[in-house]
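Predict the assembly for these two chains.
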Amino acid sequence: MRHEQEEFADFYRASRDSCLRAVTAVVGDRELAEEQVAEAFTRAWTSWGKVRRHAAPRAWVVRTALNLGVTWWRRRHREVPLAEHDAAAPAGLDDGVDPALIAALRRLPARQREVLALRVFLDLDTESTAKVLGIAQGTVTAHLSRAVTALRRELPPANTNATEVTR
Amino acid sequence: MNEHDDVMCQVRESFSVLRMDVPVEHFFASSRARRHRRLSALTAAAAATAGAAAALALIPGGAAPARTGNPQARAGNPPPASPRAAELTAFSVTSGPGNSTTLTLRKGTRLDPGALRQALARHGIPALVTVGTLCRSTPGSSASFDQILHASTLADGSDVLVISGQAIPAGTRLSIGYFPNHVQLALIKDGARLACGSTSRQPAVRITPAGTPIRG
C-alpha cells in the first residue's frame, strides 16, 4: 500500500500541471477545471491498480475530468430549465494566460479543443489521441489542422525576436 | 519540424503559468472517506433488509424469504444495495432544531440535485440545487443570510446547514451550488434572470472547511 501511494504520488507530481492545463484549455475555466481534475485524480487513485497499467494514465485522468464536466453540464441543464442562465461568462484565467488565446480557444469546437489539448499538453501522438477520444487518426489530424489554422488566424504571431545566447 | 509547432508552442507557453496546488494527500483522504461511506451504506442497506425480512416473517401470511423464490434470500444473502440507497447518502434533510431544518451534505458523493430540491421542498424550503455551478439572480435578494442560515462542518468534512425556512422572504429561493470540495449558497428572487457559473467572484456564501460562511 505504501509503495502504491508513493507510486501514485510520483505520477501525480509529474502529471498534475499538464492535466490541469489540458482540461483548462478545453473548459476555459480554471476553477472548474481544477475541481474536475481533482475529482479525476481521486478516481485515478481509487482505481490505481487499473490506471497504472493504462497505456496513457495522464490521458485517462484528462478524459475522466472532461467526462465529469459533461455530466455536470447535463445535470445543470436538467436542473435549471431557465432561459439565459448561462449568460454569465465563464470564469477567466487570472493566472497570466493570454486572454486572447483563451477567447480564441473558446471559439473552437469542443472536439478541436480536446485534440489540441491532448497533443499540446500531454504530448500524445496522433494514434494515441485517436484512441483516447475514440475517433479515427485522420479525424485527429483534421481537427488539429483546423484548430491550429483558426488559432493562427486569430492570434498575433509569436515573438520570434527572442535571442538565444550560446557560450 | 511540424508545421503546427509555432502555434502549439505558443499555446503551451501561455498555459505554463497554470499549476495544480492540491496536495496528493487530498486524494488519499477523499478515496478513504468515499470507501468508508460506501461500506456504511452497504451495511445500512443490509441491516435494513434483514430487519424488513424479520418483520415480514412475523406477520401471519407474510412473505417469508423462503416463499419469495429468490435464491439469494433463501441463502440468507442480502440483495445488493439499490442506487436509491446510494443516492441518499449524499445528503440528509431532517426537522429541527426548533422550527428550522437541518441539511447535511457529504462531500465527494454524487448528489442528485432533483432529489435534494424535493426533500427541501417537503420541509417548506424553496431551493434551486445545482452541481458544479452556482446560480444567482439579477437583481439579487437583499435578505441577510444571518437570519436564514447557520453552517458548520463535521469531523468527516460534511457540511451541516441549519436553515430557517420561515426567514426566507416570500418570492425568494435558496440557491445551493454543490461542488466536489465545497458548497456555495446564494439567495435568488423568483422570476428574476439567473446567471450560473462556477466562479465565486459574485456575492455568495461559500462554506469553508472550518464551516464558517464567508462572503466571497
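The CA atoms of residues 8 and 14 of chain B lie 10 Å apart. Confidence is low (pLDDT under 50) at residues 54-88, 208-216 of chain B.
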